# Entry
Amino acid sequence: MVSLSPPPRVPLSPYAPLSSSTPLPSPIPLPSPIPLSLSAPPSSPPAPSPPAPLPVPLSPSGHLDSFGRDGLPPAGAWPEFHWDLPELRYPQRLNCARELLDATIARLGGGRPCLTDGAGQTWSYQEVLDRVARIARVLVDDFGLVPGNRVLLRGPNSPWMAACWLAVIRAGGVAVSTAPLLRGGELRTMADRAGVQLALCDERFTGELEPAVAGVPVVAYSARGDGGALGRLAAGKPASFTPADTAADDVALIAFTSGTSGEPKATVHFHRDVLAIADTFSARVLQPRADDVFAGSPPLAFTFGLGGLLVFPLRAGARAVLLEDGSPRALFGAVAGLGITVLFTAPTAYRAALRDIDGYDLRTLRLCVSAGEALPEATWRAFREVTGLRIVDGIGSTEMLHVFISAAGDDIRPGATGKVVPGYRARIVDAAGEPVPDGVPGRLAVQGPTGCRYLSDPRQHQQVQRGWNLTGDTYIRDSDGYFWYQARSDDMIVSAGYNIAAPEVEQALLRHHAVAECAVVGAADTERGTVVKAFVRPGPGAEPGPALARELQDFVKREIAPYKYPRLVEFVTELPFSSTGKLQRAVLRRAGTPAHSSGDGEPPAPA
# Structure
């Protein structure tokens, strides 16, 4: 047996850690939420916000390795949490893997289908539970895992990847999932930040992982057949394992942000948080059925995928199809054959599917969910027109674990992200953190049953202010409570004194028949400081050049305020997207000057 002793503590910030050894009262009652107004009345100046309360004291931990709690932010830096809904008042002792498997089996039976791979091979709920129990025994018996140890997971979506995640949680470990596209340096950073002590990896992806986590045991599994080395070890274990006696506020997972705004941050989430996203957004907005079949493109390593492709279906007793290839062609092509009813993917995939929509049989689909980037209204309307399906838009974040603003069915207003998900609160605030009236753009601030807790990271103070989670997005809330996305706060373009939201210009361009995809950023300009620059991937049959650039500029002037039109237009064959489907505008900002541009926005005439 390899003993997984905790690594030496290396201070990563000047924070004084919360003590995990201090005796705490038991049980600890949940506090009554402090009512906070979503916005100040327009006719009077906003009242000062109350000081942020301290978080609920932590209950006695079931972890022997206290690394996760030791790295939590100091008490005053936590956001305010709310458990307003009755279903969010979880018992003090809670293991979310038990709730997702054992409790679902007790409620609905173990024979129903649970996890399916791309080839159609399906494990029942009882078969998943048996495999999870065997893997948990391998972790504990063969590798000495104790509750609180961190286990890195690496591999594309598959039932085996899902079983490994559930096994780590069942054994009381902390899951640190990583995407298969990450390189050695990125893996090393994440492993070091999370203090990883063991790794479970798809056997096809060990090459870059093993040198990145030198000294850490790496156990390979196969996504097919008998499960490879890990599967053979598990086969020799009994199919029983009592879930670790973890606290509801013990750390269950460490998820890394995508790093689109800088160095990735490690977010910490508790067992109760995992269930909370299912009992709010999924249960209250999506309203899944036990006969639903979930599928999608996001990796389980990202919280959008973890929720939509594992936590939500298992909480509902539904089936999850875990596709290794999440490309639009593979995803939409698999719908009919696998009977998929609920689909999770990014706006770019819905746009891409429109190009070949006549080649897909989507009759089994009843629900399409979009997140990761703002969903353009043009994409929503085009998809609705050809499929009859209304895409459910939503905004979530790794810090909040999943979606907190959304709308479904008749509540959808095309172009709006939606309303606050039941269980959450949101408001728009100014630079000082004070609420602004409806109709005024500002920073989106959120509270709820989940929230930001960075692991040993001073950036906690930037993300959480006065008890509110700041998402980094600029929004407007209307008088009906709908939230309208304007831009990422760092994507606002200030040109000649005007504030211009890049996504608004993008949506205008996407309404032109010659535009397949586009991205808008600010570009340096000697006269105006910054000008609007559009990168455009032309659609089939469109001829890129000065004439089309001029046509697009004139089109935007007619669609929105003329001062917002792109003075610079560059035609490209592709746009840069992250593995989560997010447009990487930072890459485009570093691009050179386009050929089709001029100081007054009129492209030069061809030579």
